[in-house]
Amino acid sequence: MDAILPSPPPIELIGLPVETYALISAALSETALPTSRSPLHVFFHEYITSHPTSDSSTLLSTAPKRSTVYPPLLLLPSDAFTTPAWSTYLAAHPSLLPLLAAAHNVTHIARNAPIDAASTMRSPSRLVFLHPPVDVHTHTYTASDDFTSALWVTTTQHGIQQTWAPEHTMFSRGNIREKARVLSFPSVRGEEIADLYAGIGYFVLCYLRAGAKRVWCWEINPWSVEALRRGCKMNGWTCRVVKHGKEWVQAEDAGEEVVVFEESNEFAVQRMGGRRVKHVNLGLLPTSRGAWPVATELLEEGGCAHVHENVGEKQVEDMREGIVKDFKRMRGAEVKCEHVEKVKTFAPGVLHCVFDIRV
User: Fold this and answer.
1) Burial class (CB in 10 A: 0-12, 13-18, 19+), 297
2) Closest to 143 (Cα-Cα) out of 74, 77, 221
3) Which residues contact 48 (CB under 8 A, 6 or more apart)?
């Protein structure tokens, strides 16, 4: 995202001690403007050279080098501004963050947070909001939270709009490769699909864009369900949300393109009432193993399960054979793995893979 930044005012060094002047001059001479001239690099270089200190060289070398804009949020890496030098500098220069927001045409700036591994709802650890630093962003999640009180952000991938509340749900840019593959599946058009870990609709919306007749979804995080509902509306697809415990019979089917059950996928077979589908998406990491038995019951003959797993680089073939063996045992029919998609590196030596298991 390019930003046109005003030229900085001249640096005022008059009146500084000689030793301070020497330190600043040395720092600035060592920090030429990055040749990439990314908006982030340009901003920090121009701001710090306009507001120099004896730590200018350190600040420039440790300034955030990456960012992602999810309007209206600028998301920085988890280590952004975490050094003592940056804490001191930000306290002394309160104009930096508002100007950074303005340069990127956003209203909020936050430091990223990893996914809480212990969270069954795949919720992020609490984001650190840097601008504006308001208390509303520190409230604790409750199922009854008012969705309108949260910050909602957006992005567009492959022409599909998505939205989510980053304080309560995750978003993975790295899934874009698998999304493209889903869009290319030739056997989706006119078919019914099941996504047992729907999330905010990472793959649900791609199946719809590929021509699916309907996607049946299961998701336990109400914030993700709301994001999926909003995403469907943004893209012009109809969606019905069915709360856990609410009666559902096929006669109530009014033809929505998405039906999302806000409950565990352990109820999926019962909810479907014998209906089977062409594709089952199993998009939970580090493993979707808990839903494999459900997938085998939902797949029609000739259908395909897309099994997401984290696996060591040298264990991919062993994982492939193990999944086939387990699906064959659970289904009681011939099963084969047609393809293994290596989506991305999840961690050093660990791959996010999708195994296409055909019944």
Assistant:
1) middle
2) 221
3) 56, 59, 60, 63
Q: Would you put residue 259 in left (φ > 0), alpha (ψ -120 to 50) or beta?
A: beta
Question: Residue ranges of the domains in the chain?
Answer: 18-111, 175-358
Confidence of residue 126 (pLDDT cuts 50, 70, 90): low
Query: How would you classify residue 154: left for phi > 0, otherwise alpha for psi between -120 and 50, otherwise beta?
Result: beta
If 0-12 CB within 10 Å is exposed, 13-18 middle and 19+ buried, where does residue 157 land?
A: middle
User: Distance between CA 57 and CA 72 in Å, rounded?
Assistant: 31
| CA dist., res. 337 & res. 356, Å (int) | 6
Q: What share of the chain is helix, strand, coil (3-state, %, to 5)?
A: 35, 25, 40
The whole-model pTM stands at 0.82
**Residue 175 in contact with residue 189, Cβ under 8 Å?**
no
Tell how far CA 271 is from the center of its chain: 28
- Strand 299-312 and strand 277-282: the pairing is parallel
For residue range 202-252, what is the model confidence (pLDDT) as tens digits? 999 999 999 999 999 999 999 999 999 999 999 999 999 999 989 876 645
Structure tokens at 274: 């014998």
Going by C-alpha positions, the residue among 255, 258, 252 that lies closest to residue 273 is 252
| The two structure tokens encoding residue 262 | 């806000």
SS3 340: strand
Q: Which amino acid makes up residue 323?
A: I
Band (123; pLDDT cuts 50, 70, 90): low
In angstroms, rounded to a whole number, what is the distance separating the alpha carbons of residues 118 and 100? 34
In this prediction, residues 268-278 reach a mean pLDDT of 95
Residue 3 is predicted with a pLDDT of 39
**Are 43 and 3 contacting, i.e. CB atoms less than 8 angstroms apart?**
yes
Query: The domain 175-358 is classified under which CATH number: 3.90.180.10, 3.40.190.10, 3.40.50.150, 3.40.50.300?
Result: 3.40.50.150
The pLDDT of residue 173 is above 50: yes
> Which residue in 309, 287, 271 sits closest to 194, CA to CA?
271
E-strand ranges in the chain read 68-70, 73-76, 108-111, 128-131, 153-157, 160-164, 192-195, 214-218, 239-243, 258-262, 277-282, 299-312, 336-347, 350-358
